[in-house]
UniProtKB/TrEMBL annotation:
InterPro entries: Glyas_Bleomycin-R_OHBP_Dase (IPR029068), Glyas_Fos-R_dOase_dom (IPR004360). It comes from the Bacteria. Pfam families: Glyoxalase. Residues 10-120 form the Glyoxalase/fosfomycin resistance/dioxygenase domain. This is Glyoxalase/fosfomycin resistance/dioxygenase domain-containing protein. It comes from Streptomyces nigrescens.
Amino acid sequence: MKSPVIAPCLGVPDTQAACDYYERLGFTALPGTDDSDDDLRILLFDGAFAFMVYRDQHLRGWLPVLKDTPVGAFGMFYLAVEDFEAYVERIRPLVSVTKDVLTHHGQKLFYFTDLNGYVVGVTQRQTW
């Protein structure tokens, strides 16, 4: 698997809970390292890298500049899926809907907030 140009790493209070949550939404969680004491996890979607999750305490220790930063982020992440309608229908009962399906500039969007306060926008995968 090729690494992405930018690889988001989200600080979360409970790495296993975050992985369990995203696995219910169709992601696959993999260990981030061979070190059993390191709780970094890589999340894949449709077999491709999506992002990483890391226990917030470990992330703050690794980068002390983040020591006072709360979990959650100002901003959002986008998840591009092959079948927008089917995916949104499947995950709707599993997520906290932030903004229901709307069309903006001809593109359908659906937003949810995950269990740690991160906002994820779902969109139809496209080629530019």
